[in-house]
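WARN retry 2 of 3 for item q-0093 after timeout on previous attempt; input resubmitted unchanged.
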Amino acid sequence: MKIFDNKTILVTGGTGSMGRTFVRRVLTGEMGTPKKIIVMSRDEGKQHYMRLSYLHKQVSTDEVVYNNFKNLLEFRIGDVRDYADVCSSVKNADFVINAAALKQVPTCEYFPEQAIMTNCLGAYNIVRAIREHGYPVHTVMGISTDKACKPINAMGMSKAMQERVFISANISAPKTRFMCVRYGNVLASRGSVVPLFHDQIKSGGPVTITDERMSRFLLSLDVAVDTVFNALLHGSAGEIFVPRAPSSLMTDVAKALVGDRKIEIKVTGIRPGEKLHEIMISDEEAPYAVAKGEYFAIRSMLPELNGGDIDITKSILKKEFSSADTLLDYAGTVALLKRHKLMVDDNASFGDDELIR
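OK item q-0093 returned
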């Protein structure tokens, strides 16, 4: 029996890039055949088109739209900021994947209170619903980001607090397993660097790099989902799963995508709240990191959750895990982009759906 067999899975923020890829993968049955997948988000338009894209080939439009609660894939309009909305969706769920987020760094810098409400209060509402009502949720998985590690911007700070909200919930709501995954730049997700470079190339340039030394972890949406699946299968309460992803210099990514085109690559200067390198495990977290297959798992610093048996002399990491540590060369970067079908085709259209694989 697989972990999702006959289970109800709630995906908050399920119409986003990661949420849609997660749903697509769950529907393949690789983790088992679920009883129900609930997509909860605020955007009725995205829900409508996601509903049609999955169900339109099976039944007529009216049957798709008006049988929402009978379908395997169910859509709910709701907001993680609203406790009542969260309760109505969480109460029947076996697994909760919290992909709802404000994730754009500049947006969160200008509106940090909004980042707090979605990224922190949203997580708290999930925990509160389970704790106060005793909902029998098996696992809650928080989707975090490298920016939560040693955060220097409002988005990262709010995500770091989200991690702590979920991890500490294992003590106050011990019948549910609360965990997180943390990963870096997802190739082709909305707002990430590769779609930006594609748009700049289509417009004739320039392609903008903020600093020639800048490096980033690079992983696909499917690798991000693989991380979630592995955490669900092998993770313990309070752990943060981190993929051992490759990384590249942003100059190499830009050069690979530009190719032989006569397009300028322009250095514009580092932006507010931006790091030269992504860090997925800090120096302070390194003693708590253990190897789990192709992933690191950061054990909780709370003694109630790690059993008080952390031996820092046996840590597999002696320093922070940074994108500067695992740099691909230029040829490796080209190969990675080709493998994920992200090289620019002069005749291609790079809409969001084409980029999400």
